[in-house]
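Our working data are protein records whose layout never changes between entries. An example says more than a description, so a record of this kind follows.
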Amino acid sequence: MTQRLSGGPVLVVTKELDPAADLVVDELALRRVPVMRFDMGDFPSSLGLSVEHAAAPWAGVLADAHRSVRLEEVRAVYYRRPRLPTVSAELREPHRTWANEQALAGLLGTLYALPATWVNRPDVDGIASHKQGQLPVAASHGLRTPRSLVTTDPEAGRRFCREVGGQVICKPLMGGPLAYPDGRRAGVPTHLIDPDDIDDTVSLTAHLFQEWVPKAHEVRLTVVGEEVFAAEIHAGSDAARVDWRSDYDSLSYDVCTVPDDVRAGVLGWMKHFRLNFGAFDFAVTPAGAWVMFECNPSGEWSWIQNRTGLPIAAHIADLLSGEGP
């Protein structure tokens, strides 16, 4: 029998296994907020949708075998990297690809039409996730950013290194691991480069070069609504000092305060992109200057909460519920 949730539910749209989503669901349960959690990859095989538009906004039901919600009652959507809808394998090409696109448009388009709070809408995430757009907006809001070059021209890369006159790094333009044929997956770390090693392989794809920023430590600054939570990340190995993601075991953490100008700049950046959540990476120089590298609008945060006790999940739940703790 299907159990119907009522009283302004929150939709949690994510993979089956997601520790961050688990923490948010637990916090919503403490607030007695009804939740329907689902993965878009289960649509339409085991997740059904039926909505209608007349004079009022779209109204109808989203349901699986155990739960259902009236979509016109939904108060908020927490969206965290779900799978894409997948139709039955019985459909053959070209109809299967077409039907998958229809399923995505049917479900996600319906969710977009809801007058609900989002953390975050994936279309907004997509716009905000590109470093080329992030850095000028950051600078316009008073945040210090590293000098950067995106190029497919080897000579432009060598010229950039000469003009910087110091150490230069190369880093990915976007996230995503390398997927090997044997099933292994590995991230591509930031690395220091020797200008003499820049060769014609640069022309094979877009590369991001940046000036090296001397670091006393780094900061992961997580923003939820207008609340900011900052954790110092201290590297304990040479690899982690270049890219802390390459050696988690060597890291230590401390909670820190955010300078007023950085807080104002970050909140202005968030407002520009219409985001309710963002995970910012900063370096703090030996002189104490904060330098923004990037923001991941759907970045991981549960490990920071677990290491520092920062109440990130509680504030996400507050934002989704529209209520205090």
The chain has three domains: 3-119, 121-145+213-325, 147-212. The mean pLDDT is 93.
